[in-house]
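[Q] Does anyone have a clean structure-token version of this?
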Amino acid sequence: MTCREHRDIERTIVATIAGAANTTPNFVHAIRFLTEFIYQAQSPVHTDSSIDAMVRSLDEFHRLKQAILDAGARRGKSGTINNFSIPKIELFHSFAGSIKDLGSLLQFSADVSERLLITHCKYPFERTSRQARNFTLQVVQILNRDETMRRFNLYTLLHSHGTPLVNAIATEDSIVAETDPTLAWIARVLPAEQKVVMPSQIVQAFPPSDTFPLGNCDAVLVQLPANNDTYIAQVRCIFQAVTKKGHTLPRYLEDSPLLYVQYFQITTTPTEDTSAGMYCMKRIYHRDGTGRVFRPGSIIPLTVVTCAIELIPVYGLKMDRTISAANMMEICDEYYLNTFSDKEVFNTMHSGLM
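[A] Here you go.
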């Protein structure tokens, strides 16, 4: 198996096996704590409390791992294996000490250099003349120009506010909040200009088609400014309000595209879920005066969407074989909010946002 396949399994295994007929709560908990440990160990920054949480996750896995052996799930080429004599699991116990002594484990990963190969070689190559004889020189020139533009933007921002251009060394905070030193500096000298722009995400709201007979509509995390509450909703339509010639729209309708969404009701929180330890939710249905059942919805601005999220159906004791990636968001009524969909969502769900 490749590393990508391992990561794909980590993303979905907890929600997939939760409640299955041949698993026990301790079995699911052991897998969940091991997955949480892996995610926590890969955090780009660490504090004493985050390291303690990582150690607790590993301790809980060892406390519950017998359930995996009892289920006969630890298997090899010759059949069932009745032990956890795995050198890599033994290595996990050195992570906490290594992080305290040497810093984040991510610095020893090849993922960073592989990503830099894409951002600093492959992407710039598309902007070159694509001639092998001077490819390196062109890429260096492109990267130099990009860095010059970033520095110029920073200079103009500071100069326009009359802020000194001396980057004074500040005492490190007890809790690390930013991994980008430029953002941390801007937060200190120009707090009103602090804007953290996250990478863009694609939110789909496609009508029925041959590929997706029931449509393909993603779920999002919504935070309404009126009450600062967080909701989970499925995007059904993305549109922009227009007006007739000679008329004007209210300002709030001009600022951003609008979404028609249908909300989910959270039925179980992670502390209440005895299996997956995730938020569990169900669709909201109403019945009108004629007895017709429908899903209520509302229209919201795009700006209140926090991020796209991944929902995984609650499969129950036995998975319905008619469920597929093309129809799971339409034919199921109960879902888990997958906190392991990526590292950013995992950290968000563990930061108290919800």
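[Q] Thanks! Anything notable?
[A] Confidence is low (pLDDT under 50) at residues 168-179.
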